[in-house]
Automatic annotation (TrEMBL):
This protein's UniProt keywords: Transferase
Lineage: Eukaryota, Metazoa, Ecdysozoa, Nematoda, Chromadorea
EC number, as in UniProt: 2.5.1.18
UniProt family annotation: Belongs to the GST superfamily. Sigma family.
Name of the protein this chain belongs to: glutathione transferase
Domain GST N-terminal: 1-44
SUPFAM superfamilies documented for this protein: GST C-terminal domain-like, Thioredoxin-like
Amino acid sequence: MEDWPKHKAEMPYGQVPVLEVDGEFLPQSNAIYRFLGRQFGYAGETEIEAAQVDMIGDLFQDYFNEYREYFTVAVGFTQGDKEFLFNSVMVPARNKMLRYLSNILRSNGTGFLVGKSVTYADLLLSIHTAGMEGIAPGFSNDFPRILEHRERIESIPQLKEYLAHRPFAPF
Ligand SMILES: N[C@@H](CCC(=O)N[C@@H](CS)C(=O)NCC(=O)O)C(=O)O
């Protein structure tokens, strides 16, 4: 955080995340997800699946905007009443989003959010609930399909290996 003001000026829009590819700086989470998803085969197998995966990526942006006020206080970026914001901002946003995604999981019926295999939409969900669990323990406990989905995603061998050895990430 102390170094951030220096790096902010180097970022195309003064924000992170930014992916650097062969000297090109690519900002915006969803552009990065699509770029990596297409490159490595996690962006949906057909045109309609790709659109459904992107739809979930966009939904996560809207969702983040809904709970941003709680999140910035919870991780110490801004000052505020964390408990009040959890109940008034985070809980309604979480309930709406996790219910919606539980319904998608139930109707898709493959164990994944889109199609028959893992996509970046599944990674967004499992990373989100894992991160929130660190901030608000028990975050997804009322959503059994979401818990089960996270276990499925985190037990993918390559991901399991990565999660066991990745550098410390605060959230
Ligand atoms: N729409 C952008 C939003 C990026 C964004 O809000 N970045 C925040 C961190 S999550 C940031 O860089 N904040 C530091 C700052 O603005 O100085 C995206 O999805 O990548």
